[in-house]
Amino acid sequence: MSLRPDLAKIASLVPPGVRVLDVGCGDGELMDVLTREKHADARGLEIDPEEVERAVARGLSVIQGDANRDLADYPDGAFDVAILSQTLQTAQRPDWLLDQLLRIGRTAFVSFPNFAFWKMRMALLLGGRMPVTPHLPVSWYATANIHHLTVEDFRDLLAEKGVKVEGSWFFAGGREIGQFNANWRAEHAVFRLSR
Amino acid sequence: MATALASQLNTLDLASPLPLDSGKVLPNVRLAYETYGEMAADRGNVILIFHALTGDQFVAATHPITGKPGWWERMVGPGLPIDTSRYHVICANIIGGCMGSTGPADLAEDGAPYAMRFPVITIRDMVRAQVAMLDQLGIDRLHAVVGGSMGGMLALSFAANWPGRADRVLAIATTARHSAQNIAFHEVGRQAIMADPDWRGGDYYGGGGKGPEKGLSVARMAAHITYLSEAGLTEKFGRRLQDRDAKSFGFDADFQVESYLRHQGIAFTNRFDANSYLYITRAMDYFDLAEEAGGRLADAFAGASATRFCVISFDTDWLYPTAESRNIVHALNAVAAPVSFVELSAPFGHDSFLLDVPALDRVVKGFVG
């Protein structure tokens, strides 16, 4: 099983033996790797009952719930690491979600699709319509992505909130790329954050 | 307990009198239990299943009175989600019950049936009796405790009061406390029993009397409605008539749903003791895990932070709705216990935990391991 590049990057960066909360964990793919390879104590939160069922069936501790509401119930500092992968852009209030992540976890990993990726810009510029790509394959009216953002938008939010960026990594075409001009070149971004 | 039946039951007499939450002590406690699958040499593969209000120890064996299959034969057996080719499953009739464990129909020390002299017991008392049973069987640690409905309450009580004794706790379609609505429905049942002249203040044993069959039957009918969903009832019966083409303009069971409920009520009286029904429903109504811990549910689970929990609810269960399960999950989260929770979609209401819900099978199998 090979993880999506952003998940593989997060998996490689999580220190061994820590307590991890994966928000929007899906069927627990990342949790599974963290448990087996990093001996992490991993917990998950996922809204889709079928995904939860698959995660529990593989022996993981996953709670069905809505991050937009249920993260408020977790105690402060309950986890060493809180992960939010490809979920920020679906949140009702991404800024609230970010605050919750950094309240619950000492470190947070956030990954998201970069809407300023050059192919997106071209599609919008030349096509004049909301882009539909292999990574964002759903039409504007049906997509769960209700808060599209760019790498620079995210950096602005972090600066506004005084969140410390401990590291950032960028991906395009299924592989990692460098930092240079990331807002133009990156399809996906991963940030490691702390207060 | 008829002697013919008693001879078919596996029983264990507790070595010591059982202290009760009421402050009283129950002497000469007997537990009737069934086991399924072989116990490993290191006794490390034991799963204790707690049955529901009207359930019993015949989880996966033919019921000796009704001749019907065990109540969870679709879940417990070789190759099934709770796999008896790998695990040694124990299920005991609760105290207060009427399938061989000490209850109101049994003889008190003066040689007469307890009837209403039986002490009021709690969910925790039921669990305490089974912990004493495990002690006598030499089983220190359980792979899992499992229960649905009232069985889920026992599983939660076990986890809260004997932390570390079970590695896994699976609580299905249950609650950490009885709501006003839950208590209200039970009170309807109890009043139906006690309003039956054949109840005689509970002294209906022996003497050839049949006991409060009418009252118990009505209690069962009312309760049975709470186990089903409105959509399920509509799909199963609608407004269809029973063996007739037109309404009778009388009070026969014109509708199929009436006929069904009457059948459920009458069939129940053949296998259940009315006083047991009173005592067990009372125990459920008294159940409030948070109250036991001083008012905060998380405190009840303070010692259980290393126990793995799985909580399952059903979207059509209005007896113990999903909000009750979430309440449990929040408390477990607050003590950082490893907990899984899922609300499954199933059309059968509260009874979904007993019926054909493939997603339930998958989750149970995955969690039990």
UniProtKB/TrEMBL annotation, chain A:
NCBIfam families xrefs: metW
Superkingdom, taxonomy of origin: Bacteria
InterPro entries xref list: Methionine_synth_MetW, SAM-dependent_MTases_sf
Organism: Alteraurantiacibacter palmitatis
UniProt cross-references to Gene3D superfamilies, sorted A to Z: Vaccinia Virus protein VP39
Pfam families: MetW
Protein name: Methionine biosynthesis protein MetW
CDD domains with a match to the protein in the record: AdoMet_MTases
Residues of the signal peptide: none
UniProtKB/TrEMBL annotation, chain B:
Keyword Transferase: yes
InterPro entries: AB_hydrolase_1 (IPR000073), AB_hydrolase_fold (IPR029058), HAT_MetX-like (IPR008220)
Chief location of this protein within or outside the cell: cytoplasm
EC number: 2.3.1.31
Pathway noted in the entry: Amino-acid biosynthesis; L-methionine biosynthesis via de novo pathway; O-acetyl-L-homoserine from L-homoserine: step 1/1
NCBIfam families in the record: homoserO_Ac_trn, PRK00175.1
Gene Ontology MF: a single term: homoserine O-acetyltransferase activity
UniProt-annotated location(s): Cytoplasm
Protein name as annotated: Homoserine O-acetyltransferase
Subunit (UniProt): Homodimer.
Domain AB hydrolase-1, residue spans: 45-355
Reactions catalysed according to its record: L-homoserine + acetyl-CoA = O-acetyl-L-homoserine + CoA
Family: Belongs to the AB hydrolase superfamily. MetX family.
Keywords, sorted A to Z: Acyltransferase, Amino-acid biosynthesis, Cytoplasm, Methionine biosynthesis, Transferase
Species per Swiss-Prot/TrEMBL record: Alteraurantiacibacter palmitatis
Active-site feature positions: S149 (nucleophile), D317, H350
Gene that this polypeptide is encoded by: metXA
Main function: Transfers an acetyl group from acetyl-CoA to L-homoserine, forming acetyl-L-homoserine.
Binding, substrate: R220, D351
